[in-house]
Structure formats: C-alpha cells, structure tokens
Amino acid sequence: MLEQLFDQADAVTSPAFSDISRDERERLMRSKTEYLDLYGRLKDLWLPVSRETGALLYMLARGTRAKNIVEFGTSFGISTLHLAAALRDNGGGRVITSEFEPSKVAKAREHFDASGLGDLIEIRAGDALKTLSIDLPPSIDLLLLDGAKSLYSDILDLIEPHLAPSAMIVADNADYCPDYLQRVRAPGSGYLSVPFADDVELSMRLR
Description:
alpha/beta; Rossmann fold; 7-stranded mixed β-sheet; 7 strands; EC 2.1.1.-; SAM-dependent_MTases_sf; SAM_O-MeTrfase; methyltransferase; transferase
C-alpha cells in the first residue's frame, strides 16, 4: 500500500505551486505568519517524506520500542503509516498527528482505515499550535516535524516537556528553519543532533 501511495504522490502536480516563483516560495517557506496561506495553496500536493526517510522512521520507532509518537504535518498520511506500522510491530501504541487542511485530513483517514492501522492513529484537525498544545501523553518517544518549517521551534516548545529521555526527533527539510537547527545543535542544549541524508535533521533528547 505504501508503494502505491508513493507512486500516487510522485504523479501529482499543482498549478498553484508552479505559479509561485522560486524566490517567493523560499520566502513563504520561512514565514511564521503566512504558512497557512502557503500550505492551503499546496493542498493538492502530497508533500511526503522520501522513501528513505519513511524507512528511517519505521526503524527508529521499532528500534526505540516507541509507544507514543507525535507527528506535526500529516498531509496524506504516508509518514504516519510508517510510524503506525512500527507501533503495531512493537505491540501497540498511539501516533498523534496534526493536519490543518480539511481535504488532507479526510484523505489521510481513508488511507488509515484502508491500511488496518487506524486504531493506532489519532489525527487532530487544525493548526498544530493549538491541536498539539493539549492532551499529550506524559512521555513521548518520537517526534516527527514535517509541517510548516518555520514553526519547528514553536512545535518543539509544545512537545519538549513531554519528551522521554533518549526520545528521537526527526525534522524534515530543517534547513528552512535555521533557528531550530541552532537550537538542537547548540552545546548544552540537551540534544545530540546530526544531519541525515540531504534533508533531515536527526536529534536525540539527552535529558
């Protein structure tokens, strides 16, 4: 099923995305005030993690025996399915994932139900600055940041009090959020952080 979804994602194009100039796209990706407009215009694009990053997510969740996972940015649910599959193979748990675009929420739910993993996934519709600010488990084992890049530090602020020691954080396309990279890479930050492949920052909570 995942291979079929990746193929569908690869085939989709968006005129709304093509009409945005490269410079404007770069500016919007870094904006803390226009991200809802940008991702609303990109609602037809799947914006999935790469196949390699999907495999990494599964491996990290399995290897750490994760039980509670939080994801910022569901899109059509490809990354969520990798995480939920790991939870199933770990014996159970919960992925809390947040997506503000209603059409993507509906489509992701279809994918979750079709996969047989829906019972492991809680999808929260709306702005993650609100949806991920309440009702989180006391101990979170893995955090995936793959929504509006400019908000990575803000989302980490919400999740950090709940991160378990040695919790893993995967930040996709983190180069668009230099303040996040500065934070997790700083000596004494409480994180051990390294770049992974071309577009991922992989961090571990040290305390």
